[in-house]
Design goal:
Number of helices: 6
CATH architecture: 2-Layer Sandwich
Structural class: alpha/beta
CATH topology: Nucleotidyltransferase, domain 5
Shape: globular
Distance between the termini: 34 Å
Number of domains: 1
Largest sheet: 5 strands, mixed
């Protein structure tokens, strides 16, 4: 065990969790987007409470979790899917704004990468986007830790949680290599573990 490993095993860390989901993976899409929300571990419960309160307000008769998709909320009137088709245009806009307020007031940090597939014909867009977001998340946590060190506060580590995908195997391999090494932009130092995968409805 190295000196760094011994220090890590005895230290106490705070945790930021980055939840990721993708859009545009199908062959017809020209652009692939991988985006997510980083949440401080102690805020996860309160994010959940706030989102469940929004669901109770707009969908009081639905007991199972509703997946809030902005694209569906902003769809043209004739193409609005259930359960959003029970809401007026004004209500759908209010619901979208309510979700954004939760992110802002709970100090969530939004991450995102958009890749025009034609510009990277020899790279897998999901793997490239995942590598970029891993690097950006690591840099975000390093800045946090630099500030924490100057105030004698605890370090913060990161955990990436990915909505279940056909890319799970590739991302697990990438996650292990990033945690122990580097992305093409530099060393990764702050990840606590390899990516975790959950059903999309729970991410």
């Amino acid at each position: 065990m190295s000196v760094d490993d011994e220090k890590s095993s005895s230290a106490t860390f705070l945790l930021y969790i980055l939840y990721l989901d993708e859009s545009g993976l199908h062959a017809e899409a020209n652009t692939f987007v991988l985006g997510g929300l980083a949440v401080f571990e102690r805020e996860v419960y309160w994010f959940t409470e706030d989102v469940e309160a929004i669901q109770r307000r707009y969908f009081p008769n639905i007991d199972t979790p509703v997946e809030f998709h902005v694209a569906k909320l902003r769809a043209p009137e004739r193409k609005v899917e259930a359960p959003y088709n029970t809401l007026s245009l004004a209500q759908r806009r209010e619901l979208t704004e309510a979700i954004y307020r939760v992110i802002r007031e709970r100090r969530g940090v939004v991450f995102g990468v958009a890749i025009e597939k034609a510009r990277l014909p020899h790279e897998d867009p999901y793997e490239r986007a995942f590598e970029e977001l891993t690097n950006r998340f690591d840099l975000f946590l390093r800045r946090k830790n630099a500030g924490a060190a100057s105030q004698n506060q605890e370090e913060q580590r990161g955990l990436i949680v990915v909505a279940e995908s056909s890319y799970r195997q590739q991302l697990e391999v990438l996650g292990r290599s990033f945690r122990g090494g580097a992305t093409r932009w530099g060393q990764v130092r702050t990840l606590a573990d390899v990516p975790f995968f959950v059903p999309a409805a729970n991410a």
